[in-house]
Amino acid sequence: MQKLSDVLDDGETFREGPLDTNSKLTTRLVWNAFQSDINQRIESEYMWVPLKVISGYGQIVSGMQYDIRVLAGTSNCSRFEVNAYTIQERGCVHFNGPKRAIFNIIVMERSSKSWSPFIPDWERVFSTVEREVGDNEDW
């Protein structure tokens, strides 16, 4: 998956309905989830990085709620050497051999400001591992 800085800005700040898996919005949501939730909670030596967004959906519910499924893998960056918030800048990438898994991610954003443009006042991320992906499975 591309780094957030490499994705062209399409001007979309929130979206109801199916998400474009390659959009700046989706990329921002996924990387934020890996930085603020997944790599903070997972207790393994190596950081996890997103590999591919499988699906995503947005819904307006007193703010925005996004439900995203992501294929991820362990990276070449140790949590003892890299901060979770710097995994993009440090060039952490998946390498052959480590674990892969599918994560279900829920992102909730709320703004007390006007809805145009949507600027979150707060964001909460919840994630679970749906299942591990075997070496023989292609995505």
Short note summarizing the structure:
The chain has 1 helix and 5 strands.
Describe this entry's structure for a reader:
InterPro entries: Cystatin_dom, Cystatin_sf. GO terms for molecular function: cysteine-type endopeptidase inhibitor activity. With 139 residues, the protein is mainly beta. The chain has one domain: Nuclear Transport Factor 2, Chain: A (Roll), CATH 3.10.450. Helices cover 13% and strands 40% of the residues. It contains 1 helix and 5 strands. The protein has a 5-stranded antiparallel sheet with strand order 1-2-3-4-5, covered by helices on one side. β2 and β3 form a beta hairpin. The longest helix is centred in the N-terminal third of the chain and has 18 residues. The chain is globular and about 40 Å long. The model has no long low-confidence stretch (mean pLDDT 85).
Task: Provide key terms for this protein.
139 residues, Cystatin_sf, Nuclear Transport Factor 2, Chain: A, single chain, cysteine-type endopeptidase inhibitor activity, 5-stranded antiparallel β-sheet, Cystatin_dom, 1 helix, mainly beta, 5 strands
Question: Could you tell me the mean pLDDT?
Answer: 85
If strands are numbered along the chain, what order do they take across the biggest sheet?
A: 1-2-3-4-5
Give, in order, the helices and strands.
EHEEEE
Q: Which class of secondary structure composition applies to the elements?
A: mainly beta
Overall geometry comes to: globular
The largest β sheet comes out as: 5 strands, antiparallel
| CATH level-3 fold name | Nuclear Transport Factor 2, Chain: A
CATH class identity:
Alpha Beta
Cα Rg = 15 Å
**What percentage of amino acids are in beta strands?**
35-45%
Helix content: 10-25%
The second-level CATH architecture is: Roll
Straight-line N-to-C gap: 13 Å
Number of helices: 1
GO molecular function, one term: cysteine-type endopeptidase inhibitor activity
